[in-house]
Amino acid sequence: MGERELLVCVDGEFYPEGQAKISVYDHGFLYGDGVFEGIRAYGGRIFRLGEHIERLFESAKTVGIMIPMSREDVSKACAETLRRNGLREGYLRLVVSRGVGKMGLDPRNCRKPTVVIIPATYVITLAGLKPVKAVAVCTRRNPPFCIPASAKTLNYLNNVMARIEAINAGADEAILLDWRGYVCEGSGDNVFMVKNGRLLTPPLEASILGGITRLTVLEVAKKLGIEAVEKDLTLHELYNADEAFLTGTGAEVHAIVQIDGRVIGTGEEGPITKRIEDGFKRETQRPENGYPI
Ligand code: PMP
Fold first, then answer.
1. Contacts of 113 (CB under 8 A, 6+ apart)
2. Quick one: average pLDDT of 76-95?
3. What is the pTM (predicted TM-score) of this model?
């Protein structure tokens, strides 16, 4: 919780943080049966909300949850949550679970999905950290023949376990490999590297979440005339990168300066990362990228 009690939206009703609750019979709690989004607002506009809502509906479709609202109504509810809290900048956690029902996996036990929108004034990922140290961890990202990584579901245990490994190793963030051993992504962010002036990042086929920040960064690179290539990356390539960074709604563009004890480039945020970071910040301020609060 932040320093003041914000209002959380639960199935269309607003409750102070301390009173915002869902049932223990909610299948999101019982089985991790749900989907979610992390969304951010800048300067009174919600950044690329349409893409977040689309990804939410796609994740829900994959796991067979029918969101009981239209895309426009979910968008309006996000804006309303920020408005009610007087927030022009901030983070939103949008969660849709299968809903409340008697125990048992049968989804027909749940009559209606639960829709929760939690606002936050602080940013949850890598907040306040200087350029990060990362470690490649044993826990792998879900392969496409399990829960697909492109669906943002409430089953984030691989990611949580990866983060635990990173913390135990004294690092800030984990780098997960995919089922084949190629570099995949961070526990809650995508990975980029720079080599000889080119930007490289794992392709969607590497079983990553298709990050909206990742997409924005690829667009920024194009605008800046920086060549960007989506290809499988080995740890060898990552260790020998000139620069590396993470991208995500929480992380924004965040330099990595060490991986598994190997110093990346000069050990500080590199010049191309800085250009991308500045370019990304400009995108967050552009009115056409934002849904008005
Ligand atoms: N990968 C994972 C596993 C994530 O959970 C996230 C979102 N937190 C991202 C990447 C970044 O996605 P986005 O840029 O859309 O926030």
1. 34, 60, 65, 66, 67, 68, 96, 97, 98, 99
2. 97
3. 0.96
